[in-house]
């Protein structure tokens, strides 16, 4: 198993090697941490588009641009956080630092929601979001990488482990919008944002308390170098922390400049593609090179999926609020609470899908990773078309059933792509690049989040207001395009599967790299 276990075994009272439900106990610690981080993130996200349009009175178009900029920065930040964790901090310290910073950001949002108005309030709001972005950069990629370090590379439990981990994400994502959304839209914005901060604080406390369960994984690559004092004044570790906190100011600026974020993503994506080609053709032999090309193919599919899927928090949230019959048992449910439906479906279907993949794998019938990606695109497209078909005549409210059916299609698509993609990054990349490749995976998601904001803004029409017919017209087009691209990906899947060399994964982590 990757990483040292002897020290952890002593500290943990013999925890090394012990399992629960067939998995290392450290998996369930990471489940807990990610659950509370996602509680805070999705709880706040459920309120974001409504806060911008109802509190600060942004137009739908401008709110969608701001939403896209924020969400893309959330997912681009792990690129730098993953690099700093790999090179200096190690994943454990990165997760702890990130969790503390995220909690600070949610506290700022809670204070702003209760005491501030006007330009000062908006500036403080951007500051809270920028702080959350910075903290997420450290936590998000590192906690995912820690999951992979608990297993040998060819262990058949890896895909199910990431699915279980993904369920932790969705426990938090189910509860967050229900609690934060209800408090925010019924009791006051600061109650919703404040509840999000409590969740992240709980995650940090649990992570510190149960550290021995990590079995020594995620420690700094060179502890002595990390403790070294720079200029005799400050250790390298604290220099990383302080310089990272200064990046909050950069995020504060960028979140208000969606066009600059778009250019930044375009340049970053081009550099990442160039870097992957340089690694593949400059430093690797054939097997390693083939695997990197397979990784690149999966990375291209990633933003297409998320650009469509992430209408959840923007255009779909506004559509649910304005054009859907939200009455359940006589209670008019706040629209923000429906953002928990997707996560609740994952809790229901996640174990089923994990068991299904194992059952199919034992019989040699499991679809390859690229085939699952193609299926994911087809399902997300089908979800939009179901909503369009069920919306009825103009001027009528859409039955709530079709919102639930859309979420069902999207959930099944997500289960075919997201946990499988995380697993693929961890086992196809060389061990020296795992943290960085997790960051690149989230960079691809960032590109998708930015595209999601652009798609949502396109539903706003000439006056910036998302009309019912305008939203449905956009959903009809992207639904058919998504299905078509999904079928193309499935046709290419056998070729990409050959590039992955699954049968050679038992080789040492550095296989393929030139000495």
Give your account of this protein's structure.
The chain is built from 17 helices and six strands. It is mostly helical and 515 residues long. It has a two-stranded antiparallel sheet with strand order 1-2. Strands 3-4 form a two-stranded antiparallel sheet. It has a two-stranded antiparallel sheet with strand order 5-6. A hairpin with a 2-residue loop joins strand 1 (19-20) and strand 2 (23-24). Helix 11 (286-309) runs parallel beside helix 14 (369-390). The protein is globular, with a radius of gyration of 22 Å.
List the keywords:
single chain, 515 residues, mainly alpha, 75% helix, disordered N terminus, disordered C terminus
How are the elements arranged and paired?
Layout: H1 6-11, E1 19-20, E2 23-24, H2 25-55, H3 60-89, H4 91-115, H5 118-149, H6 158-187, H7 189-209, H8 223-227, E3 229-230, E4 234-235, H9 236-254, H10 258-282, H11 286-309, H12 315-323, E5 327-328, E6 331-332, H13 341-362, H14 369-390, H15 400-428, H16 434-458, H17 468-500
Antiparallel strand pairs: 1-2, 3-4, 5-6
Helix pairs in contact: 2-3, 2-5, 2-6, 2-7, 3-4, 3-5, 3-9, 3-10, 3-16, 4-5, 4-7, 5-9, 5-16, 6-7, 6-13, 6-15, 10-11, 10-16, 11-14, 11-15, 11-16, 11-17, 13-15, 14-15, 14-17, 15-16
Number of continuous helical runs:
17
**Percentage of residues in strands:** under 5%
Large-scale geometry: globular
Estimated radius of gyration: 22 Å
Largest sheet entry: 2 strands, antiparallel
Helix/strand class: mainly alpha
Give the spatial strand order of the biggest sheet: 1-2
The beta-strand count equals 6
Global mean pLDDT: 84
**What are the low-pLDDT stretches, counting only 5+ consecutive residues below 50?**
1-16, 508-515
Helix content: over 70%
Query: What is the terminal separation in angstroms?
Result: 23 Å
Q: What does the oligomeric state look like here?
A: single chain
């Amino acid at each position: 198993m990757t990483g040292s276990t002897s020290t952890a075994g002593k500290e943990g009272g013999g925890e090394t090697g012990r399992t629960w439900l067939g998995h290392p106990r450290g998996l369930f610690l990471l489940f807990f941490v990610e659950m509370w981080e996602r509680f805070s993130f999705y709880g706040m996200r459920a309120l974001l588009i409504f806060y911008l349009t109802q509190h600060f009175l942004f137009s739908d178009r401008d709110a969608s641009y701001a939403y896209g900029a924020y969400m893309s920065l959330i997912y681009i930040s792990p690129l730098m956080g993953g690099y700093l964790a790999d090179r200096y901090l190690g994943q454990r310290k990165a997760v702890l630092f990130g969790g503390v910073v995220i909690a600070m950001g949610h506290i700022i949002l809670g204070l702003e929601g209760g005491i501030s108005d006007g330009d000062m309030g908006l500036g403080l709001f951007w500051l809270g979001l920028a702080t959350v972005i910075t903290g997420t950069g450290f936590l998000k990629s590192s906690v995912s990488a820690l999951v992979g370090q608990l297993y040998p590379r060819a262990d058949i439990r890896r895909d199910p482990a990431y699915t279980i981990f993904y369920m932790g994400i969705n426990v938090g994502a189910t509860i967050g919008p229900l609690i934060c959304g209800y408090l925010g839209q019924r009791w006051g914005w600061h109650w919703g944002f404040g509840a999000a901060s409590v969740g992240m604080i709980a995650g940090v406390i649990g992570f510190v308390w149960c550290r021995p369960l990590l079995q020594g994984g995620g420690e700094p690559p060179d502890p002595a170098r990390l403790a070294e004092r720079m200029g005799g004044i400050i250790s390298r570790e604290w220099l990383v922390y302080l310089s990272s906190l200064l990046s909050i100011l950069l995020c504060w600026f960028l979140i208000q400049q969606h066009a600059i974020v778009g250019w930044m993503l375009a340049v970053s994506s081009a550099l990442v593609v160039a870097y992957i080609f340089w690694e593949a053709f400059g430093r690797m032999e054939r097997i390693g090179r083939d695997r990197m090309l397979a990784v690149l193919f999966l990375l291209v599919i990633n933003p297409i999926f998320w650009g469509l899927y992430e209408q959840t928090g923007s255009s779909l949230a506004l559509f649910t609020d304005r054009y859907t019959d939200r009455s359940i048992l006589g209670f008019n449910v706040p629209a923000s609470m429906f953002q928990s439906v997707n996560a609740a479906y994952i809790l229901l279907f996640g174990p089923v899908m994990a068991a299904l993949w194992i059952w199919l794998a034992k019989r040699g019938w499991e679809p390859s990773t690229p085939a699952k990606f193609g299926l994911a695109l087809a399902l997300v497209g089908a979800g939009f078309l179901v909503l369009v078909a069920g919306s009825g005549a103009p001027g009528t409210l859409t039955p709530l059933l079709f919102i639930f059916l859309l979420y069902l299609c999207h959930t099944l698509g997500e289960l075919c792509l997201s946990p499988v993609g995380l697993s693929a990054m961890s086992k196809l990349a060389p061990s020296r690049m795992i943290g960085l490749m997790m960051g690149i995976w989230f960079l691809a998601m960032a590109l998708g989040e930015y595209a999601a904001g652009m798609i949502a803004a396109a539903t706003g029409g000439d006056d910036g207001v998302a009309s019912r017919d305008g939203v449905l017209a956009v959903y009809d087009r992207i639904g058919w395009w998504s299905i078509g691209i999904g079928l193309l990906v499935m046709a290419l899947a056998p070729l990409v599967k050959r590039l992955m060399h699954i049968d050679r994964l038992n080789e040492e982590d550095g296989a393929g790299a030139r000495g």
